[in-house]
Amino acid sequence: DLGCFTHDPGFVATASCTSKITYIDGDNGILLYRGYPIEQLAEHCEFTEVAYLLMHGELPNERELLDFDLEISDRAIIHESLRKFFDGFHYDAHPMAMLVGVVGSLSAFYHSEMNIKDPVQRLRAATRMIGKMPTIAAASYRHSVGRPFVYPRMDLNYCENFLNMMFSRSSQNYIDQDHYIDQDFVKALNLLFILHADHEQNASTSTVRLAASTGANPYACVAAGIAALWGPAHGGANEAVLNMLAEIGSVDNVPKYIAKAKDSEDPFRLMGFGHRVYKNFDPRATIIRKTCHEVLSKTQTNDPLFELALAVEEHALKDEYFIEKKLYPNVDFYSGIIYKALGIPVDMFTVMFAIARTSGWVAHWLEMMEEASTPISRPRQLYVGPAQRDLAAIKNR
Ligand code: SDX
């Protein structure tokens, strides 16, 4: 019911699609998942509760959540021949390159089992995708550092499992004694996954919806979404923030780089600042900023990068240009810093975003499939090329 949420009737006319999943009010910094404020979900829910909400439209009761968590754990393991897929990647392949390739290949493993016209099979495929993403993501990391693959475990929750698959030092997958997992890190990861779960028609979700509108299977659609997310203007921004901080190098250089970001002739942008929709604050950044400072104080890391990040934040928030243009830190500014403090390598940051956003992507895929009559999205264009002309033979060109 757009009327209740859209102040500007012109907006309705220009909206590219309708959806019941996520609502954003960019001017007032409001983000709702299926009507629930992100602040409440972030404070009270497990990530899998939120994934269930996005997919089903309602929060699960205890029994529903238990069944959902069990199904996710059960689906987390990947086929042994899919594990061998990683052997084909050079050790220094970017984890996002491995993710987009391996997720796309799930179509070869499960496509025959899935009739997208059957709602039960669609839900099973969507849940399977949420279950397997952390396993494939962690396997990408383990391959890149030459460590043995660690299998998912039924006795760990979603975030604990991911951290164990990433950092467990032994390859004794089911009797791993050293699975000490810091619960503060698990709490921070749970929050990051909730905040990144969905965000209306962002570039990667729109890509998934476009692919879904052709009737493509969810694994192919999610692989398309991963490809779109990789760009530094979108999901690659968290990795770009850390690379930017490394380039700035020291607190003394911050004013120079703030000036570069303001120079319209200079292509340099302050990564992690600004947003297509939020023209005030990104509510996710407000939530995540507190966690960022908590994780930094807990890890007591003396990495100068964190002091530098806080200096960039302080300078930009006080700068007239950024205030006038309403360029505030977005979710990616803080998420990169937290991931680094959690020991996640920089080239895995966008992979982290993909793990979380998989729940939004599959929710939108389900929504598109439910509207069986959804016509294929086929954007039109404003042609600005040459007028019609006749061909000259090559010897006359
Ligand atoms: C995500 O769509 C989503 O929902 C995405 C996302 C999600 O959850 O899926 O929220 C995740 O992608 C967050 C954004 C991550 N990207 C970055 O942090 C990269 C840095 N940000 C910029 O690239 C930029 O802010 C964009 C691309 C995010 C938005 O660009 P817009 O739409 O051009 O921003 P704007 O219209 O508000 O810009 C107003 C002015 C412009 O200058 P003028 O044309 O007025 O002279 O501010 C400038 C922009 O050039 N500007 C910046 C800037 N962002 C905008 N100047 C310096 N540094 C920046 N970061």
From TrEMBL:
InterPro entries: Citrate_synth-like_lrg_a-sub, Citrate_synth-like_sm_a-sub, Citrate_synthase, Citrate_synthase_AS, Citrate_synthase_bac-typ, Citrate_synthase_sf, Citrate_synthase_typ-I. It catalyses: oxaloacetate + acetyl-CoA + H2O = citrate + CoA + H(+). Keywords: Transferase, Tricarboxylic acid cycle. GO terms for cellular component: cytoplasm. GO terms for biological process: tricarboxylic acid cycle. It comes from the Bacteria. The lineage of its organism: Bacteria, Pseudomonadati, Pseudomonadota, Gammaproteobacteria, Methylococcales. Belongs to the citrate synthase family. Gene3D superfamilies: 2.20.28.60, Citrate Synthase, domain 1 (1.10.580.10), Cytochrome P450-Terp, domain 2 (1.10.230.10). This is Citrate synthase. GO terms for molecular function: citrate synthase activity. Pathway: Carbohydrate metabolism; tricarboxylic acid cycle; isocitrate from oxaloacetate: step 1/2. The active site is at residues 275, 332. Pfam families: Citrate_synt (PF00285). Signal peptide: none annotated.
